[in-house]
Amino acid sequence: MKQRANNIVGAHTHYRAGVYGILCVALSGVAPAVGAPATGETRPIMGRAPTAAGSVSILKPGATPLVDNDQILGSKKPNEFTLAPLSSGVTFTDLDGDTQATPGLAIAPAGVTWTWKNGVTPLTTTQLNQTFATNFAHNTTLTVQANAPVLSTSLTGLPTTSGTPVLLTSPVYRVRVNNPPPPVIYVNGTTFAWNSGFPTTGFVGAKFQLYMNGVDATANNNYTYQENGSQTWVDLAALNASGTEGTVSFIGTPTSANKTLTVIATNKTDSNDKHTLNITIGRWFVNGGATTRTAANADAYCTGLGGGYSTPPYATMTNAAYGAAGTRAPVAGLWSQWGAWATLVPVGSAASIGLLSRMGLIGTTSASTLALYSASLRATSTV
Q1: Are 338 and 199 in contact (CB under 8 A)?
Q2: N or C terminus of the chain with fewer C-beta within 10 Å?
Q3: Is 118 helix (H, G, I), strand (E, B) or coil?
Q4: In what residue span(s) does the Invasin domain sit (predicted)?
Q5: Contacts (Cβ under 8 Å, ≥6 apart) of 172
């Protein structure tokens, strides 16, 4: 038993020694775990990019919105059309709910592309830089469409930009070229060219009308009219009622100091559509009333008016040869410029031609006959 006890003791002692070894290994194995560094990182979450949707629209020259089948003046050019602000027809979209930047929508550097066509034929680069009137007749219908690459930008979230532009297009607009004839002057049944020089003669009660479309007065309401110089012998405003817009009336007598007149007609919707009429009166006529006079008495009456008045010679009354009919002309005699008196000046008025009315010659086409009686009718003076 002892020895056994000894063996047991010996065995126990060996066992303890084994425990010490296990403890050392265990401590050695735990130590590295206590000092291990962290390896994880915090990274931002990538969402969806902002984008844009909708369509773009076009502005005409003068920044007015273009509509389908719109008219454009022949004096304008295709390259004067511009893209309307994006905010009017384009919507910013972000599926993550990120806040739109300011402005948040912009045209990409590639820029807007324009497609102009006459039927199926694209306009050339030269045509795009010329006026419509240069290449296209009145009422020619063209088409135009704009394509705009749009970038979207947000203040929050990632990514903040769309990166690749979204191509937005405008509708295809029809554009009709408005290239009417130039304006003319209408006076008593006859029209004269705008810069023909009419009139060079005048009298109280004379009047004429501007035809802004070159044909009739239907387009006159599209314009405003002003006399640039405050001439008191001219009236524009009093007759600017419906249907009579653009009528110029002589209501007083000019002097050598104020015998020039400038009338300006301006389109109400396009200030670039402006027409200026310059007039210089060289001879002024005064009516002698319905009194019959001899030639000598007529001469005395006219010179007695003073101010350089005299009995009008034949050539200042008409361009007709003796015994023949005269013709209407913008810078010829009084009758040639103003025409038949019955339709121009009311018979019996202070400005009427009394003698011609009584003799049945009002409205006659024989300007030479008119001239024969001019001495008893009118006094004339150079202005």
Answers
A1: yes
A2: N
A3: strand
A4: 186-232
A5: 143, 144, 145
